[in-house]
Amino acid sequence: MEYPVTKSRITARNLVVRSFLLGVLILILRFVYVVTVYGGSCASDGFCFFSSSDSVGMKKVFVEDGDVPVEWRRAVDFYSDAFNKLVMDGYLSRGSKSLCVGSTFGHDVMALKIIGVEDVTAIGEKKSPPLVVSANLLNQPFGNASFDFVFVDIGVLEGSESQAELATEVSRVLKPGWFLVVHTSSCSDAYSLHSFAALFPTCRILRSGELAGSSSVVREIVLEKREDSNGIDMAKSKLGKNNECSIPETKLKAVKSMEPLIPEEPVKPWITLKKNIQNIKYLPSMVDISFKRRYVYIDVGARNYGSSIGSWFKKQYPKQNRTFEIYAIEADKTFHPEYAMKKGIKLMGFAAYVRNETLSFQVSHNPIDDDTEGKGSGMGRIQPTFGESSSSANVHSIQGFDFAEWLKNTVTEEDFVVLKMDVEGTEFDLIPMLLDTGAICLVDEFFLECHYNRWQRCCPGKRSPKYQKTYDQCLDTFSSLRNSGVLVHQWW
Ligand SMILES: *[C@@H]1O[C@H](CO)[C@@H](O)[C@H](O)[C@H]1NC(C)=O
Ligand SMILES: *[C@@H]1O[C@H](CO)[C@@H](O)[C@H](O)[C@H]1NC(C)=O
Ligand SMILES: *[C@@H]1O[C@H](CO)[C@@H](O)[C@H](O)[C@H]1NC(C)=O
User: Residue 215 Cα, ligand 2 centroid: separation in angstroms?
Assistant: First the structure.
């Protein structure tokens, strides 16, 4: 395959010029180091680049061998090696109009200059003269398609709170057909590489690999901006056309590493299912979730704050230091006042259902029914309203909403979405709907309580009369979800 950059040819003349340049560059290296570290001032008796009118009391700055510390030089060497390799592979040339995004000390800029790239601009959150100027990385002061080569240093993208915006901005200033190189400490697994790629819909990944020569892990990802990138609607999710989504290979792989399903119906489900939480292999403990637009937890059938958001999600779910937006979906009004006082939790006071419809549900206060243990008053199965039933004292009327549609309007495939669902049997209506509409593809990790006619603690040998489905039907649901690449766990 050919790239639109001229590969370098080493000729004798070239070599002489290079040696000369190298000498000059070592001088520049010192200069840059001095200016970077001493802020552009120096004492009058040293060898100076700037006037020293205001330098009383400043450190003397001599430019001699040894003034440039080993670490600084080593860092520059590391980038030079990496960039040289890019030149050899045809992704970068001396003539490339280049941009470094997020430079802190200018090692990367210096390295580009050393290997002979002349036109280099560097922007960072803080300026670091003389190499790096400060700019808003999310609104860069450049026109569309301004650069042939854009470099994003390690930590810049994964450390950003607006990864998607930064990725979009970086792609915007790159010319179609040209190259973007990102250094990162993340992306070591296929899953995170997939989410990384989703941040750059106008680019395609050419290669990804670890670089040698650094004490910490540095992964280099090379992308090319697509020639037809103007036609890609970046805001639009890939879902939607015919409600189909392709389950990425990476999800199917992750499914294989999950904890096994419990094959036999538990005799003491109140113990077995609860204990099973210790076997759960959480997705963020298997893969790197750094490259996502937002992090969202949706608790359907949230009940009171302590029942799962506070006791489990906040405390136990591994979040890789990300802040999650939390949606609590709970139709039972008894629980609503508590959520009004919780910051960062959005309450949806309606019932998740398959369409917008008024429903009736039963509030059970039956003390011997251990299904509701520790979870406050239990909610019966949601049923569409029929005239007669709404007259009963225990039957409340509530608004149900189209959960699949809501999900599609609320999150995108670029978000990391954790869904917990405990809806008293309505899962047998909701899940086919989620599959049908493709909304299930928006969910990264799914915790599902499947309600069946389980054995009861209160009354040995008696099954719960509340539900008709059997354990095998639940198992079928879990298996078929997993087979289609949904990372679903058995919730208790
Ligand atoms: C620059 O590109 C963005 C999308 O990448 C587009 O929305 C905008 O209109 C373009 N601006 C100009 C001046 O072409
Ligand atoms: C989370 O942050 C803490 C402190 O900032 C750090 O020690 C820890 O390594 C981080 N964990 C992850 C998974 O990034
Ligand atoms: C359901 O209700 C929501 C909120 O009122 C609305 O946005 C949505 O369009 C409705 N959906 C259907 C299918 O009527």
Answer: 19
